[in-house]
Automatic annotation (TrEMBL):
Record's protein name: PucR family transcriptional regulator ligand-binding domain-containing protein
Family named by the database record: Belongs to the CdaR family.
Domain PucR C-terminal helix-turn-helix: 493-549
Cross-referenced InterPro entries: CdaR-like_regulators (IPR051448), CdaR_GGDEF (IPR041522), PucR_C-HTH_dom (IPR025736), PucR_C-HTH_sf (IPR042070), PucR_dom (IPR012914), Ser_kin/Pase_Hpr-like_N_sf (IPR028979)
Domain named CdaR GGDEF-like: residues: 303-432
Domain annotation Purine catabolism PurC-like: ranges: 13-136
Origin organism lineage: Bacteria, Bacillati, Bacillota, Clostridia, Lachnospirales
SUPFAM superfamilies: HprK N-terminal domain-like
Membrane-spanning ranges: none
Length: 563
């Protein structure tokens, strides 16, 4: 449907109307391009209370016949706030101080670029008003018809599309043709999810972006900003509690006007429909894959034929090489958050992993995200260790953009051959994840974000123990005495011991790390030796104490009721 892009009525159009024959412009020529959005007759001085803006006001000054010049000025000055389009003046009836009031209107007109047209006395305001209202009504009808036409076109597009995802680009292409400007759509993370030809696939919402009124009633927020000497319009659409859509229109050929806004609103409806459809299908697929992954990872597949069927549905080779990674979040405030907030955090983590890891299968396991990744058997352990740390760093950066308080952690299982052995890697990944904070105490670089189960060394055996009494057997008796030391200095002594061991028994570096005097550090070490009986010159005893500190932390963290 061909529709004129400029359906508006302007003040200059009034001079062409037959009903305005004999009209002349007496002031405010600069405002002839003001758009007319309504028309009313000034029947009383307080009419300003009842106008919305953009009106042409018709007056014979009779409403002001008895008011003082000061009151008249106050009434007229109030019109500025309403941004009226023009005044049409008709003189003839006796009005006190009429010439002075007309002169003030002329001054007002020049100051605020509001045109004043004077019409002969015999012209009926009713005829002028009727003609304007007829044209304004026709414009609204045209807009309504255009909205229906565009809405029907977009409805047919999305309802007739059989391919998930393709419809988004089709919607944007159609909209771009209607408004003759490139269009792109972005998700909450400002990742491009679709674009018409020639549209920018990156978006930065500038701090000085201004609110924009599209000239129609809308449920969405419009912003306008300057990009490389071009106007860019951003429509912010809230899809649900988690998702947001940004529709971006960049002026390349034509300026963005009210008819474009109407087409944009119809396109937004179609995009919402398509995105909801995609979301529903995706969630259904996730639920289906989650069920399969749960059964495989927990060893609940009873036969080879069932395993073959499930791996086929997942799209993974049954005899491939795999590794399982368990991701989770930690943070001081996270435990205090309500259930919905924690679910939202987990969804954020899942989105981050999906963005940073390709060709993987993702399984949501309550507040953890389990990833099954096919691996290259030729890759060395050190190469993989570096790769997974880089991935975790990228996932952390993604999460931090949304919530700087959340920290990502990951536990990694061993490489296994065949899908049937995934439960072994999953078990190790879970154990590495469970002890990831403690593992930071024993890793060479102190990295507590990600832990490979294979890096735990002797602690792999301790991970198998869930009985605190058995774990306590790996804590030297002397160290137990220090933990049971009931005096206030106990915590200072424990931190001093740990630092002393970390610094390879270097007393000077220990004092520096603890910000205490050398003599203070020396006194504490002597005190520790006296309580525990440890011989710091005996390498075996020192090693036992190193292991004991980590084991005690395991007991302390995961078996608090026992201590």
């Amino acid at each position: 449907m061909a529709v004129s892009k400029d359906m508006a009525i302007y003040v200059k159009d009034l001079l062409m109307e037959e009903e305005m024959n004999g009209a002349r412009l007496i002031s405010g020529e600069e405002g002839l391009d003001n758009e007319i959005k309504g028309v009313t007759i000034i029947e009383a001085p307080d009419i300003v209370k009842w106008i919305n803006g953009g009106e042409v006001l018709l007056t014979g000054l009779y409403a002001f016949r008895s008011c003082s010049m000061e009151d008249f000025k106050n009434y007229i000055d109030e019109l500025v706030k309403k941004k009226i389009s023009a005044l049409i003046l008709k003189r003839g009836k006796p009005v006190e101080g009429a010439e002075d009031k007309v002169e003030y209107l002329i001054q007002f007109s020049r100051k605020h670029t509001i045109p004043i047209l004077e019409v002969p006395f015999e012209i009926s305001f009713r005829d002028v008003m009727s003609r304007l209202m007829e044209r304004l009504f026709n414009e609204e009808v045209t807009r309504l018809k255009y909205f229906k036409t565009t809405h029907d076109n977009f409805s047919a597009l999305v309802l007739g599309s059989e391919s998930i995802g393709v419809a988004i680009d089709q919607i944007l292409d159609v909209l771009a043709k209607l408004i003759r400007n490139p269009v792109a759509a972005f998700n909450r993370q400002l990742d491009c999810i679709g674009a018409s030809e020639g549209a920018e696939r990156s978006l930065e919402i500038q701090k000085d972006a201004q609110s924009y009124e599209p000239g129609i009633y809308s449920n969405y927020e419009y912003l306008r900003q300057q990009i490389d000497n071009r106007q860019q319009y951003i429509v912010k659409v809230k899809l649900n509690l988690r998702e947001r859509l940004y529709l971006v229109i960049t002026e390349e050929e034509d300026s963005f006007d009210v008819m474009d806004a109407i087409a944009t609103e119809s396109a937004i409806w179609a995009l919402q429909f398509e995105l909801v459809r995609q979301y529903s299908v995706t969630e259904l697929e996730k639920k289906f894959q989650n069920d399969i992954m749960h059964n495989i990872l927990n060893g609940k597949i009873d036969s080879i034929s069932e395993l073959q069927k499930n791996t086929s549905l997942l799209g993974v080779p049954i005899n491939g090489s795999f590794r399982v990674i368990v991701f989770g979040l930690k943070g001081e405030d996270r435990d205090k958050r309500d259930f919905k907030s924690k679910i939202s955090d987990t969804h954020l983590l899942s989105d981050a992993i999906a963005c940073q890891m390709t060709n993987v299968k993702i399984y949501n396991d309550l507040d953890r995200i389990v990833v099954v990744k096919e691996v290259n058997k030729e890759q060395t352990q050190e190469e993989y260790r570096q790769e997974i740390r880089e991935i975790v760093d990228k996932v952390q950066a993604y999460v931090s953009r949304q919530d700087k308080e959340l920290q990502v952690k990951a536990g990694v299982g061993k490489v296994v051959e065949g899908v049937i052995n995934l439960p072994d890697s999953f078990k190790e990944a879970n154990e590495a994840f469970t002890f990831v904070d403690i593992a930071g105490e024993i890793s060479e670089d102190g990295n507590s974000q990600v832990t490979l189960f294979s890096d735990l060394g002797i602690f792999k055996l301790l991970c198998q123990l869930d009985n605190p009494e058995l774990l306590l057997e790996y804590v030297p008796e002397g160290l137990q005495k220090l933990y049971n030391y009931k005096k206030p200095q106990r915590d200072d002594l424990l931190i001093t011991l740990k630092t002393y061991l970390d610094r390879n028994l270097n007393l000077s570096k220990t004092a520096q790390d603890l910000f205490v005097h050398y003599k203070t550090a020396s006194y504490r070490i002597e005190k520790i030796a006296k309580i525990t009986g440890v011989d710091f010159d005996n390498a075996n005893e020192v090693l036992a104490f190193r292991i004991g500190l980590v084991v005690y932390k395991m007991i302390e963290k995961y078996n608090k009721d026992y201590l």
